[in-house]
């Protein structure tokens, strides 16, 4: 069973905490994590790109010149793709890039991501995160104290506007609640920062 030091917001050790083997101690499955990352990125695409084909461009109804005898290449329409103002070949059209991943695979991918972070020693557990006011400096000082000055994902058990708004202006730092977590954000962060209550919820949901 993996064990971690739980610290306070100043980086001082408060106690030790045991992580669940069922969530943080499995062998990471790279294939399902890759599938979930591809699914997440595909689901972010708007799919609204659009261009006109030769059948949709206005004009070009008359043959520009006779078929033979002019010395020029034969042409049937001034809206063919090779013409200025012509239609686009294989023009992109609005489409939905989404694809779904079944529940068992999603759960395995999440547990694989958590276990990967645990094995890489990239998880920081904080007893609680509370700020008296909305101030970016507070979040920056906390991150520096716990040893996370690069990309970090702060996971809270509930919505805390003071924490969320204090951290949102720091480059590379994201905040999320347990029910908002996804494999991409977990793997993309250099450090996964969990509050004690958030860790309990994660183990309750995924164990």
Please give a handful of descriptors for the protein shown:
207 residues; alpha/beta; 6 strands
SS content category: alpha/beta
> Helix coverage percent of residues?
25-40%
User: Can you tell me the residue ranges where pLDDT is under 50 for at least 5 consecutive residues?
Assistant: none
Oligomer: single chain
What global shape is seen? elongated
Q: Order of strands in the sheet with the most strands? A: 2-1-3-6-4-5
Structural Rg: 27 Å
Mean pLDDT across the residues is 92
**SSE sequence, one letter per element:** EEHHHEHEHEHEH
- Total strands: 6
Work out the strand percent: 5-15%
Biggest sheet overview: 6 strands, mixed
How many H/I helical runs? 7
N-to-C span: 13 Å
Q: Can you walk me through this structure?
A:
It is a single chain. By secondary structure, this protein is of the alpha/beta class. It contains seven helices and six strands; from the N terminus they run E-E-H-H-H-E-H-E-H-E-H-E-H. It has helices at residues 21-24, 30-44, 103-119, 136-145, 161-167, 183-188, 196-206; strands at residues 3-7, 13-18, 123-126, 152-156, 173-177, 191-195. The protein has a six-stranded mixed sheet. Helix 2 packs across helix 3 (103-119) and helix 4 crosses helix 5. The longest helix is centred in the middle third of the chain and has 17 residues, at 103-119. It is elongated. The two termini are 13 Å apart.
């Amino acid at each position: 069973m993996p064990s971690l030091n739980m610290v306070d917001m100043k980086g001082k050790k408060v106690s030790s905490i045991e992580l669940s083997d069922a969530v943080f101690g499995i062998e990471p499955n790279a294939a399902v994590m890759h599938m979930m990352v591809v699914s997440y990125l595909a689901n972010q695409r708007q799919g609204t790109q659009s261009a006109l084909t030769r059948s949709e461009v206005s004009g070009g109804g008359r043959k520009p010149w006779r078929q033979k005898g002019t010395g020029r290449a034969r042409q049937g329409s001034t809206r063919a793709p090779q013409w200025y103002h012509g239609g686009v070949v294989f023009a992109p059209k609005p489409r939905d890039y989404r694809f779904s991943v079944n529940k068992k695979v999603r759960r395995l991918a999440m547990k694989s991501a958590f276990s990967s972070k645990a094995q890489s020693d990239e998880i920081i557990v904080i007893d609680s995160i509370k700020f008296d006011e909305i101030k970016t400096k507070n979040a920056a000082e906390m991150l520096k104290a716990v040893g996370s000055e690069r990309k970090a994902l702060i996971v809270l058990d509930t919505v805390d506007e003071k924490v969320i708004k204090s951290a949102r202006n720091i480059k590379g730092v994201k905040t999320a609640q347990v029910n908002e977590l996804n494999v991409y954000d977990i793997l993309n962060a250099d450090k996964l920062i969990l509050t004690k209550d958030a860790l309990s919820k994660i183990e309750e949901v995924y164990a």
